Amino acid sequence: MKKTLFDKVWDSHVVKSIENGPDVLFIDRHMVHEVTSPVAFLGLNNRGIKVKYPERTFATADHNTPTINQHLPVEDPLSANQLAALEANAKEHGVSYWGLGHEKNGVVHVVGPEYGITQPGATIVCGDSHTSTHGAFGAIAFGIGTSEVEMVLSTQCIMQPKPKKMRIKVEGTLNKGVTPKDVGLYIISKLTTSGATGYFIEYAGQVFEDMTMEGRMTVCNLSIEMGARGGMIAPDQKTFEYISGREFTPKGADLEKAQAYWDTLYTDEGAEFDREITFQGSDIEPMITFGTNPGLGMGISNSIPTAADLDAAEASYKKSLDYMEYHEGEAMLGKKVDYVFIGSCTNGRIEDFRAFASVVKGRKKADHITAWLVPGSHQVEAAIKEEGLLDIFNEAGFELREPGCSACLAMNDDKIPAGKYAVSTSNRNFEGRQGPGSRTMLASPLVAAAAAVTGVVTDPRELI
Which of 23, 266, 380, 437 is most buried, judging by how many CB atoms fall within 10 Å of its CB? Predict the structure, then answer.
């Protein structure tokens, strides 16, 4: 029987299939952070049980962490309590814990791949919707809720209905100034935020084959924003080279055995999907969002569409534009920008900071712009310094902060003030996502950099 990549990985992890119900799925890796884990650990403690396989569980602090003065006590009491709870729970249950000050600390979906925890053909879960990031390695990775976190901690399994399968191909090549972030935002703008609901996506085609691993992670990260359960890309030589020699990657005979399995991870010729969609890379330009969900995005040179153009409900569409104080038919180019944020599990990797530096080099930050440059991990922070990018940033008037989720979701001190506009390389632009009353425009590191040096929404192709 011809199988898709998704079928191969899913079926090999099914412990038991429940008739007319979900599958019991074995989980290879469980990533844990401080927000969704305290109640789950409390449930274990109340039942007097321990984590089933602590060696398969990895905890890091990221959502509530400050991005300056991390050597000082965390001032916000709620954040401090959650961070302390994660540390105590990890210690009690023998789980690896990378807290503030630890060399491996960082955003959960950045450090997982960096240390080889993320591997092809694995099942990976985390109490975080953007766990789909890890699918870039040919893994089945998805976010879970607090009760499910407890289920995985206690049994190393989870009960899940098997999603339908979708393949999205992007053929051809990308034009100048178009990044993986733009590819993701383009697909979401075409499918809408619910267009992939009930599906697990496989990304295929020349554009994804040409992408770096970091670019693939960015696209898979955004899968959840089109309603999908997750997204994945078949592993190839780039994948194997990326994970080679990392701390948790198999070694010696174990690596040979793993590689033999990894080499089988591709969709068989003739395997069937429930839905297939094809786009052309040449149709994509630098993207920017104009509304209050990731699906309300457009090419940066276009004008804001009408509700009729999008076949959208007029009342909710008007509400979205009213929140942003935008109007149908307006250009996005030249729109006011107050804040610029580069970071998050979407664009907090070294490749993203290289892109940002390529635009700001030899230029100066606009005086009125507040810019937060937040690496996704200490590895990324070190690379920024080693590659001379920090010198470029400093000369242009930017400062580098310390690793963390930062202004992606405003669960820390990095909040966009009410009424202010932020060009953000993160993944969500819901009302108040980056702070109560904040207004977010999602974009790539190149678009963010162009806004940072001009002070307004600017096409980065004019500066490259």
Answer: 380
Average of per-residue pLDDT values in the chain = 97
Query: 3-class SS at 337?
Result: coil
The answer to whether 426 and 407 are in contact (CB under 8 A) is yes
Measure the CA angle with vertex 396, ends 363 and 351; round to 5°. Answer: 90
Taking only the tens place, the pLDDT of each residue in 342-353 is 999 999 999 999
Q: Give the end of a domain, one of 230, 260, 285.
A: 285
Task: Extract long-range pairs of 196-199: CB within 8 Å, 24+ residues apart.
Answer: 196/166, 196/223, 196/226, 196/227, 196/228, 197/227, 197/228, 198/163, 198/164, 198/227, 198/229, 199/163, 199/164, 199/165, 199/166, 199/227, 199/228, 199/229, 199/274, 199/275
Q: Are 55 and 26 in contact (CB under 8 A)?
A: no
Total of domains in the chain: 2
- From the CB of residue 327, how many other CB atoms can be counted at a distance below 10 Å? 12
* Nearest-angstrom CA–CA distance, 404 and 410: 11
pLDDT of the residue at 395: 98
Check residue 228 and give its pLDDT: 98
Tokens of 140: 């089945």
Greatest alpha-carbon pair distance for the chain in Å reads: 63
End-of-domain residue from the set 225, 258, 285: 285
